[in-house]
C-alpha cells in the first residue's frame, strides 16, 4: 500500500505521551502526505495497543512487524511507497 492511499481513512494512533520524537515523526509523516492523524489514549503494552487498533472502524493504525497480534483478526498491510524509515 502507498501512504497517500490512507488519505480517506486517516491514521489513528495511541498518544505517544512523553515521546516527543515519535509524536513529531507521526505528525510530519501525516502532514507530508496529507493524511488525517488522530491520537487516542496512550496504550499500555502491546495487548492494549492491539485493542485500540481493533476498536477503530475506519482509520488505520501504524505498527512495526514485531507487534504480536496473532489471533486478533488484525490484518498487516505493508506500506511500500515510500518505504517508511523510523527516526532511530
Mean pLDDT: 86
Return the domain count: 1
DSSP strand tally:
2
What distance lies between the first and last C-alpha atoms, to the nearest angstrom? 23 Å
Main pleated sheet: 2 strands, parallel
Provide structural commentary.
The longest helix has 14 residues, at 20-33. This protein is α+β, with helices and mostly antiparallel strands. A two-stranded parallel ribbon has the order 1-2. The protein has helices spanning 20-33, 46-55; strands at residues 11-14, 37-40. Helix content is 27%, strand content 9%. Helix 1 (20-33) links the parallel strand 1 and strand 2. The chain has one domain (1-88). The chain is built from 2 helices and 2 strands; from the N terminus they run βαβα.
Which terms would index this structure?
single chain; about 90 residues; alpha+beta; two-stranded parallel ribbon; 2 strands; about 10% strand; LysR substrate-binding domain-containing protein
What would a concise description of this structure say?
By secondary structure, the protein is of the alpha+beta class. It is about 25% helix and about 10% strand. It is built from 2 helices and 2 strands, in the order βαβα.
Give the arrangement of secondary structure elements.
Elements (H helix, E strand, L loop, with lengths): L10 E4 L5 H14 L3 E4 L5 H10 L33
Amino acid at each position: 500500500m502507498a501512504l497517500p492511499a490512507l488519505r480517506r481513512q486517516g491514521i489513528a494512533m495511541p498518544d505517544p505521551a512523553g515521546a516527543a520524537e515519535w509524536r513529531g515523526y507521526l505528525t510530519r509523516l501525516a502532514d507530508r502526505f496529507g493524511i488525517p492523524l488522530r491520537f487516542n489514549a496512550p496504550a499500555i503494552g502491546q495487548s492494549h495497543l492491539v485493542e485500540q487498533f481493533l476498536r477503530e472502524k475506519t482509520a488505520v493504525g501504524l505498527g512495526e512487524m514485531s507487534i504480536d497480534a496473532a489471533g486478533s483478526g488484525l490484518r498487516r498491510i505493508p506500506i511500500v511507497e515510500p518505504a517508511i524509515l523510523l527516526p532511530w
